[in-house]
């Protein structure tokens, strides 16, 4: 559905009164979203998209100014879309959530304003927004290139109709969106849903250690031998509930380099 809408949409930047960027919201019915363009964009080249769902009691105005989110997209040449949740939150628990249709509408409206690269539509979120990103990817997986999820999941017994390239990061000491430890202390349980949906039956490769700073260090597990052909990646750290420095930037770097399975050698500790 999204692919068809994007194909038919007029891929031209908005002008005049329709122009909205940064903290100026793009109206969409009774709701709105925010846009941040990448640095140095020529106004013509089709843009990869990261649609990021904000955390609880936040709004898109924060996302388009957030160094770890918009800072990453600006430098990577990615168009950032930041929907505004109704009541500053998301209805991610319901498989029939109105926010699924809203997310689709945001993508379709953005495609009327910008030339969108339909093969590079990434969906992200943090905390409640991460759970919403899971919900959106679960409902619209056929039109989502990759899920970048930070510190928030759905129940692992949810049913999702289409596989997705998944990248999830979670802190073992998270007590806000508690780390979803599996039976017997299984630390790989946070992505059990996507391993099942993608048909990843084997053991993962890992852990591979990598770090952005001394405090932002991760252990990566990768399931690449999946029936769907779409891998699942899980990055774990020992800290709590936050957006890790450099994590989104690293995922975009890998995705834009044709989805390499592992990290550049310079990042492997």
Automatic annotation (TrEMBL):
Where is it located? Answer: Secreted
Q: Which domain of life is it from?
A: Bacteria
Provide this UniProt record's keywords sorted from A to Z.
Answer: Carbohydrate metabolism, Hydrolase, Polysaccharide degradation, Secreted, Signal, Xylan degradation
UniProt cross-references to Gene3D superfamilies, sorted A to Z: alpha/beta hydrolase
Q: Which GO terms describe its biological process?
A: xylan catabolic process
Q: Which SUPFAM superfamilies match?
A: alpha/beta-Hydrolases
The main location class comes to secreted
Coiled-coil positions are none
Q: Which one of the record's GO molecular function terms can you name? A: feruloyl esterase activity
Instruction: Quote a single Gene Ontology cellular component term.
Output: extracellular region
Say what the protein does: Involved in degradation of plant cell walls. Hydrolyzes the feruloyl-arabinose ester bond in arabinoxylans, and the feruloyl-galactose ester bond in pectin. Active against paranitrophenyl-acetate, methyl ferulate and wheat arabinoxylan.
Which PANTHER family has this protein been placed in? FERULOYL ESTERASE C, PTHR38050
Similarity comment: family membership? Belongs to the faeC family.
What's the protein name?
Polyhydroxybutyrate depolymerase
Q: Which organism is it from?
A: Algicella marina
